[in-house]
Specification:
The chain contains two helices and five strands. With 74 residues, the chain is of the alpha+beta class. The strands form two sheets. A three-stranded antiparallel beta sheet has the order 1-5-4. A two-stranded antiparallel ribbon has the order 2-3.
């Protein structure tokens, strides 16, 4: 799942994701790959998806809107 990173990484033990104006933390131990300075591709374990489903869907929706805006700008 490709998600937008928060404007600053606030922990050296977690990936900080953008969730509106507040950060959402994901453990660094999850499989991940930094796509660029703004996005990260994370493979979440099922238990984490189940526990944080609404929050992750919201972050994913906002990330997809940002990607669409960036693509439209060229």
């Amino acid at each position: 799942m490709v998600l937008q990173k928060y404007r600053a990484q606030l922990s050296d033990k977690a990936i900080t994701l953008a969730h509106g104006s507040k950060p959402f933390f994901v453990p660094l131990s999850f499989e991940h790959k930094h796509v660029d300075k703004d996005f990260v591709d994370i493979e979440f374990p099922q238990w984490f998806l189940d526990k944080n489903r609404d929050t992750l869907q919201n972050i994913e929706r906002n990330t997809n809107l940002l990607i669409q805006i960036l693509c439209d700008k060229g």
